[in-house]
């Protein structure tokens, strides 16, 4: 006999919802588990489908997923997400402690740069940058300004990879130590530079570029190659090129 499908979300969902972030979909949950997130509750309206995905794509966390996933009705699943995800999986994860994140950011010597997004506006860009930072093994992503880097839309864009790097919001005056390489089309061509592992790689906002405060803190202005008449690149693609340059000039550890 199979277990009956719960008509509503489990009580644990309501208990943890206030202090946790939503992981929307199988891949976000898979990444969060891989990088050590504390996940008190996870639901799906298709447990067999989710475990088949785990067999295929994530055998390393299949056991944890099998222990965590509670099957609920389609309506119960839909009631806890803004928009149903094709994998019909949702989970709650405890946000890592700010104090621990700030310690990691301040720790020196640093083995990989910190990405600084100066007053970003676009939640999707912020999520994409967190995903990049996780992929390149950056120490963290710091935002200045009003955007919350743990906003549900940013977490969705980050595909659960907020747990693979430090993600915090700070004032420019409170940025961690290290030389600031600020990306700006008027800067020195990046192709002639080696970016040090302890660098803060700073990027301006989509609308107005680097703020006066960030410019005042910058040690170097760095430009990405761009032909005349093109004004600028998208923020997340600028971060991608810069992290790639850091990795290609000796920064990131090689994947075996
Ligand atoms: C969309 S751009 C900002 C455009 C904005 N209108 C401006 O006045 O700078 C967002 C950020 O991406 C980075 N960026 C974009 N293109 C770049 C380039 N060619 N060289 C260096 N940084 C660039 C900069 O940090 C910039 O502040």
UniProtKB/TrEMBL annotation:
Pfam families (UniProt xref): SpoU_methylase
Domain tRNA/rRNA methyltransferase SpoU type, residue spans: 114-243
Molecular functions (GO terms): RNA binding; RNA methyltransferase activity
Domain of life: Bacteria
One GO BP annotation of this record: methylation
Keywords, in A-Z order: Methyltransferase, Transferase
Annotated PANTHER family: RRNA METHYLTRANSFERASE 3, RRNA METHYLTRANSFERASE 3, MITOCHONDRIAL
Name under which the protein is recorded: TrmH family RNA methyltransferase
Upper classification of the organism: Bacteria, Bacillati, Actinomycetota, Actinomycetes, Kitasatosporales
